[in-house]
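quick one, 345 residues, struct below
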Amino acid sequence: MNLIVLYGVLFIALGAFMSGSFAIPFDKIKNWQWENYWIIYCLFGYIIVPGAICLLFVPNIMALTEQVPLHTLRSIFLLGVVYGTANITFGLSLRYLGFALGYALSLGLMMAIGTLVPPLINGRLAGMFEGNGGAILVAGVLISLVGIAISGYAGFLKSSQVETNKGVNKEFNIRKGIAVAVFNGIAGSSVALGLEQGIPVAEAAIANGADPLFQDSVVFLILYSGSFLTSLIWCLYLAVKNKSVKNFVQSRGHALWKNYIACALAGFLWFITFLFFGMGKSKMDDFSFVAWGILMSMTIVCATFWGLYRKEWKNVSKKTYLLMWIGLIILVLASFLIGISTNTN
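---
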């Protein structure tokens, strides 16, 4: 792995840390239902923060969009709409499978599909098989899936051991959970597909004077505008149905501004994930599609470390604790393999 690609992996690791951290501010939110904080978080994460990044680092944004075919912009936007549905239904996979199992299965499928399908469509994966890169990439993805499976199983054991006194999850439904997780995996990988569709936009950004590190910023803005539309429609529907619209303006004994600040911070951390991801991806040249697999694997690693810090793994058995560490080590190894696959052709 040369230094440039290593820098790319480090950028992506920073993004993964942000991704594993973005939901922590939600703990500070009080007296709001899910739809209240989710739409405010989406407003910042999907529109305000990416819009500000584009204004700061991408010259001549309007001229840039005029240089790209309309069908390309439309494809990116629609893929964002699809990703928005995945974000919404992701919660259902956690509901039916539990946090650990739902998180691992959904992200595992996102990782595999998002890493392999885009280069398979445009032919770049076939080019990697002319050398050893393709085999190493596929091996990295498969090993990552093993690591995700072990991490998910460890999380499942943890939940059953730590929450024994809280009662069994009555909503656990393996069939519904797997069905929703498969949908999440397919729909969630639309971000990787959107980035592939957005290559002409990124190239136009560079041609207009943008630093290559920020070349994907406009792509993200277009993509997540579609995601915001999906989230807005669903959250407004729930707000009307649950009569929670008033929560946006009524404090009910809690400083309302704290809820807005928490949502803004969550949105900032979430988009910074993809800002660093875009920076890392820009260092991988023709094999930038491998960045997605690294991000998904490292996100699970970072989320688990946050769980350790917050003592979520306290009082689990030695077997469960060992499985957790084995899963993490395998995921780090898989990320390394996916990274070096770009330099073995």
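Residues 3-343 form one domain.
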